[in-house]
Design a protein that fits this description.
By secondary structure, the protein is mainly α. It has two domains: 64 residues, Winged helix-like DNA-binding domain superfamily/Winged helix DNA-binding domain (Arc Repressor Mutant, subunit A, Orthogonal Bundle); 44 residues. Helix content is 61%, strand content 6%. The chain has a two-stranded antiparallel ribbon. Strand 1 and strand 2 form a beta hairpin. Helix 1 crosses helix 3 and helix 2 crosses helix 3. The longest helix has 25 residues. The protein is elongated and about 55 Å long. 14% of the residues are buried.
Length: 125
């Protein structure tokens, strides 16, 4: 598995792992039933604490992306299409929020931002 950790990112390492695994699942690169590397192996590969990998796997399990089977490890779950769509929408919301924050930091008013979004939407349709 090709996970890249950015140590200078403000995003916690376990969240970086979660995000990359979720992205691979959404793109179909990780299919349901795929066995993830063991916590120990992935921690060695990434040169991070096993507890960090465990935290990532636990978060993925809570979100429904992974199922952990005692003795077999963590396995990619059969993701509900509605859940996949919700994850995509969350990512879009996050990017729109970042764009709005950037606009506000650069002095744009709510009205200016709304107008800019309206113009962009018109151009794209």
């Amino acid at each position: 598995m090709n996970i890249i950790i950015n140590n200078s990112s403000i995003q916690p390492i376990y969240e970086q792992i979660c995000a990359q695994i979720k992205e691979s699942v959404m793109k179909g690169a990780l299919k349901p039933g795929t066995i993830l590397p063991s916590v120990r192996n992935l921690s060695k590969e990434l040169r991070i604490s096993a507890l960090t990998v465990k935290k990532a796997y636990d978060a993925l399990e809570q979100q429904g992306f992974v199922v952990t089977i005692h003795g077999k490890g963590s396995i990619i779950a059969d993701v509900n299409p509605n859940m996949a769509q919700e994850e995509k929408q969350k990512e879009i919301e996050k990017k729109i929020e970042q764009a709005i924050r950037l606009a506000r930091e650069n002095g744009m008013s709510k009205e200016d931002i709304s107008e800019l979004f309206r113009l962009i939407l018109e151009d794209l349709t």
